[in-house]
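Journal club prep, notes for RB
We'll compare a predicted complex against what the paper describes. Inputs for the magnesium ion case:
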Amino acid sequence: MDSVTIYEVGPRDGLQNEKGVINVDDKIELVDYLSKTGLTKIEAGSFVSPKWVPQMASSGEVLASIKRASNISYAALTPNMIGLEAALLANVDEIAVFGAASESFSQKNINCSIEESIQRFIPVIEHALKAGIKVRGYVSCVVACPYEGPINPRVVAAVSKRLIDLGCYEVSLGDTIGIGTPKQIIDMISAVTVDVSVEQLAIHCHDTYGQAVANIYAALDCGISTIDSSVAGLGGCPYAVGASGNVASEDVVYLLQGLGIESGVDLNKLISAGDFISRKLGRSNQSKVAQAISN
Ligand code: HMG
Ligand code: MG
């Protein structure tokens, strides 16, 4: 593999779980910092219910004020038509619908069953595509669920296939609670690629058990060439208690450099972006690579 796309989720997955108030200007500055690193995909916000995820209520303001680079696709989550309409008003380049391979997680996260979520996504995807907006799909709990435990890879495969059949250009496979190990990731990807082409898959690893970089290496070996990550290792899902941040983007870029795989991302600029938001949140940069290089 010569090149990989990094799909930066820091401004969304990274910040959505933060309990304290984060200044909107700081969120905007984070996206602007990231826009200068060479990234081509940035998930800048989420048009979900502010009662469910208060931190993302400012996503419209963020998207209205960032300095957009023409080569970057700025994305946002949209769980339903209300979210899609807000995202279109905010001029997003692409949207993402997000489902799960676990019934319990689907209920806790988006208040409906897996089948109901698919029915909700149908008009969202149709309208977005008609408006010329690309749609990404997420499947959460691809290895295990915080409420149900291990998840059958065939369920992951079935939900992924439905999202692709509905018009998603890509499905991001989320190890929401960061519990998977490489063999489980490989087995899961093998099940999904029976029906979905590996070019249409991305991997989305949280790092709760410290396995994210190993899991990404395994996913690369399976042919996956889009990797979700979050600057400074920020993140977590409010409906997956105990799950830690996403894999740090800095750590992914370092891994790719070592493998001779091009990502187009400048590691030093990324570290500066991570240091900036970590300072604003009053904590140290969680990326091991950022820590090592900065010391
Ligand atoms: P619901 O309560 O069933 O929705 O929530 P509803 O349609 O009955 O509406 C209830 C109220 O919410 C109404 O307002 C609606 O207008 C409002 P009221 O009449 O009570 O004043 N509402 C909205 N407001 C703003 N934007 C919207 C919206 N929709 C309804 N889009 C709903 C269903 C899906 C809305 C809710 O469950 C929700 O917002 N969930 C989002 C949860 C979330 O954001 N989780 C984190 C992201 S997923 C994740 O992190 C995993 C991922 O990273 C991958 C991985 O790691 O696995 C992607
Ligand atoms: Mg996530």
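Talking point for the session: Residues 13, 174, 176, 204, 206, 237, 246 surround magnesium ion (ligand 2) (CB under 6 Å).
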